[in-house]
Amino acid sequence: MDRLAHTIEVLEASAQRRLEELFEFLRIPSVSTLPERREDVRRAAWWLKDACERAGLAASVLETDGHPVVFAQRRGPEGAPTVLVYGHYDVQPAEPLDDWRSPPFEPVVRDGNIYARGASDDKGQALCWIQAAGAWTRAEGGLPVTLKVLMEGEEEIGSPNLERWIAEHRALLQADCVAVSDSDQAAPGLPALTYGLRGLVYLEVRVRGASRDLHSGAFGGGIMNPIQALCDILSRLKDPASGRVLVDGFYDRVRPLADWEREAFRALPHDDEKYRSELGAPMLYGEQGYTTIERTTARPTLDICGIFGGFQGPGAKTVLPSLAGAKVSMRLVPDQRADEIAEAFVRTVRRLAPKEVEVEVGPPERFGPAGKKDARPGGADPVILERDTPWARAAEAALERGFGAKPAFIRAGGSIPVVLTFKRVLGLDCVLMGYGLKDDAAHAPNEKLCLEDYHRGCRASAAFLVEVAARAGRRERAKTP
Amino acid sequence: MDRLAHTIEVLEASAQRRLEELFEFLRIPSVSTLPERREDVRRAAWWLKDACERAGLAASVLETDGHPVVFAQRRGPEGAPTVLVYGHYDVQPAEPLDDWRSPPFEPVVRDGNIYARGASDDKGQALCWIQAAGAWTRAEGGLPVTLKVLMEGEEEIGSPNLERWIAEHRALLQADCVAVSDSDQAAPGLPALTYGLRGLVYLEVRVRGASRDLHSGAFGGGIMNPIQALCDILSRLKDPASGRVLVDGFYDRVRPLADWEREAFRALPHDDEKYRSELGAPMLYGEQGYTTIERTTARPTLDICGIFGGFQGPGAKTVLPSLAGAKVSMRLVPDQRADEIAEAFVRTVRRLAPKEVEVEVGPPERFGPAGKKDARPGGADPVILERDTPWARAAEAALERGFGAKPAFIRAGGSIPVVLTFKRVLGLDCVLMGYGLKDDAAHAPNEKLCLEDYHRGCRASAAFLVEVAARAGRRERAKTP
């Protein structure tokens, strides 16, 4: 008899309760980057601990130098493999608030989607695993594997304390593989196993002219305008015609795409015109010679995430501002290295900086209220995961169980830096089972998660546990002479 | 006996009261560009009406389609000339508030300066004229000329309703000349008669990419980033090497500086290194081939006054924003025309706009909360005033009386568009008697007016009234056969 059947029944019978739990979770504005949300972040951690306990896991909130980590576990049968699940309970800021159709921290279901900040990234996806564990325990009195759950509260600020925490808790975190649900399906109804992630370098540039704001009439023309200088610098970081990034040596280590991979990208369901129309952009644009899927998942890029300076209110103010700044993210692909690219960016900006202004460049922490002047530029390296491991095979089967379709193997444009940490510090492979969709508006107003994908995700997570157990069993048996 | 002596005595005896009155005026946050300050702007108008009445003028607050106009007058002796005084009681926004050493609307005297938003621009300078009239009336029981006072509340938003109001009140405003104190001395202790003003065109550029903010990981590389597009456009509006503006045809009508004028500029007290060090800029910068005084008063220029887009908070948010915008001011010199330059700017930005984004350009009102979609680009033409009129000679003598030094003839970098309106609509010449200093930080944090300059300004204003009367008398006598 199918070992999963009872668990699926329990999941189905508890659909309403599972939705209400997710709503509770989403109502907590755990925005990790905002100092004023510190207590809300803690509240989310404690909520998650309780949820793990309701699911039959032993759970605790463990302190770090920043926001806490939630750790939970439940032992499986003797000799069963151990699955470590990673997720994050912190969310991006909700700004600009005016653009939300319903308030970001008051979740609602509309047109079959759950709308709230964090619905897709990552509370909704992370909670699937807790729900799956709870259903297993209620249906079968226990889990088919030993399950460990590690949920952090600093993913959206670059996980500054996680690597050390993991290194200090090696024994606690011992496992056979890591499962992460913080990515997307290939398309609606087409689940995906993500085997590639782009890396990330995020830096801020600040330009200062005069020591105070000046009247643009009285002083305009006499000194360099820092906004103008900033625009000149930023404009020289990307070639508009080719779409190529002009940071010194940016492409030196980029591994060319293999023919088989470009073939596989072409086989994915994608329509440029539909994509463009959903985004509402006048035209698509990107690096010449590559398709949209390649540009957004398998080629490196540079984006200005924010810019500021001078008068921004309605109307006119004739000011020659003293300060301008911009935040820049670079997405990296194998074999680029985050530290090298960060250094190259700093070097390039310094080379482009006119001497008539002061130009500073570094990680955003350096310019924040805490003013960590010694914060060093860095980021996350890109990742390519092996596709032929028992865990990847288990994930493939589980996704098919959960979503009713064979998964595609895809690369994702975003970064999940902890994937590298697990490999480097614990020697563990991750499987990336994404339950979101590309148009979920993660990091943007009106973030959503398809309600049905939440249920499918719970099923796929539940299935993964038993598929891992089955494969480990086969491996054990195969070893027996 | 000197006709001015009693009036000066009265001014000196009332120094403390006159300072307290200015403080009252400065405490009213009459920021004309902010809708939430509407009532404060009205309050400033009514305060000013009362002040005029205390000075012996008949005064009224007169409505326009925007903020009201304050008009006041007092008849002089039969046959005496009529002086119209223009000023404005509205002020610039005080932001960024954090940079003020004392709150912008809580005036204080520190190191011999009055610190407050509007101290120099223009409440302090405008009030000098009311104080002068009050002193005359108390000292002599009346004025040596007929005085009319016109103070508007929309100067800092481009005086959208003033021209029509002036045209509709031609008879009321009939006069022989206009006196305006809304500019600077040549240097501390060196008063100035300003004979040239730069024109102004102020436009906003908005760039839209996708219809919502996107995750820079999932979508970065697939569509054009509107901040990048905006920077590319702005960067192509000025040549960094030559400092020249690249708006199409920008210099076509610029009148080359005459040798005598460049000579006169060189004779003005100015030290580049002192100027740079006071501004706190690493180096001076401007159009190649011109001095700082020429660059800031007699050559046209372009400045980005504000820029915005994406995430601006502390920390990092990996967003590919949907919108970016910038506010740009251009300062014009004879014989550039504001309407032509505005059109040229719009045309140039459209030419530079990539087709992968939507680019809109127009006056800031078009993008404000009221969304005046039909607002047309425009601005103020530059001005050169005649130096050899009885009113200019009277101003020269009055400034020497008030400041104890012969005034310099200078050009100013800012714009006083109403100067053109008075000429065009009423056929009147203005005299520009500036009581401020270049480093008064008009439009910037820590705006100030030198306390002694307030007193000198009151004296110079009082002297102007009698100097005009004397010259008109001489003219009348000269006409008698």
What is the C-level CATH assignment of the largest domain in chain A?
Alpha Beta
Question: Percentage of helical residues of chain A?
Answer: 25-40%
Oligomeric composition of the shown chains: homodimer
Structural class of chain A: alpha+beta
Q: Which superfamily, in CATH terms, is the homologous superfamily of the largest domain in chain A? A: Zn peptidases
Tell me the radius of gyration of chain A: 24 Å
Number of domains of chain A: 2
CATH architecture of the largest domain in chain A: 3-Layer(aba) Sandwich
Query: What is the number of strand segments of chain A?
Result: 19
Task: Tell me the overall shape of chain A.
Answer: globular
